[in-house]
Amino acid sequence: MKDGPFSFNLGEGGFIPDEYDNHIQRRLSNMKGQYLDQEAYQVKLAQEDILLYEVYEIKRPEIEGEILHGISIVHPGKVGEEYFMTKGHFHTVLETAEIYYTLKGRGYMVMETPEGEWAVEELAAGRVLYVPPRWAHRSINLQEDEDLVMFFAYPGNAGHDYGTIETQGFRKLVLDKGNGPEIVDNPRWLPSEGG
Ligand code: S6P
Ligand code: ZN
To answer: Fewer CB under 10 Å: which end of the chain, C or N?
Structure first.
């Protein structure tokens, strides 16, 4: 971890992997049960456990007052009709927000609250997306052959609740049935107990 103030590059020349402390890679095998077309998932996985997305983190203490930040890269591709996407999560401390700044590419951020509201916002290079407290978030790359690259920042004490999304899914999915991205109800969405 760096001592005192520091800076790093995001502009001309893009981000520099060496400037980050952690590199997380998520592959197809890490997304079991998340894609709608489970047969397409199994077939693809049998071919290759491909890299779906990566996160480069600057290490900071995970405490209130700190800001955790880094770069997320969602690679292009599809599982069946569904675009490559992140797992998605609520923050463990629900009342914590997050900011995303898209550096490169085009995508969607799919979001929902425990109360049942949902939203899908466009991610486009040069635009900032604010994810308010309480909103689960998942990023999706809508492009054929380019990475979706974003800078993110969120409170140090937020934590990640992946379990809720793993068991109940998101209420909305983004599919391409041949005419580009379509937001559809998730037929496998399963409300959690008391939800
Ligand atoms: C963390 C923030 C991002 C995600 C990244 C990968 O709060 O939202 O850094 O971690 O986009 O997504 P996920 O759902 O696998 O953590
Ligand atoms: Zn988050």
So the answer is: N
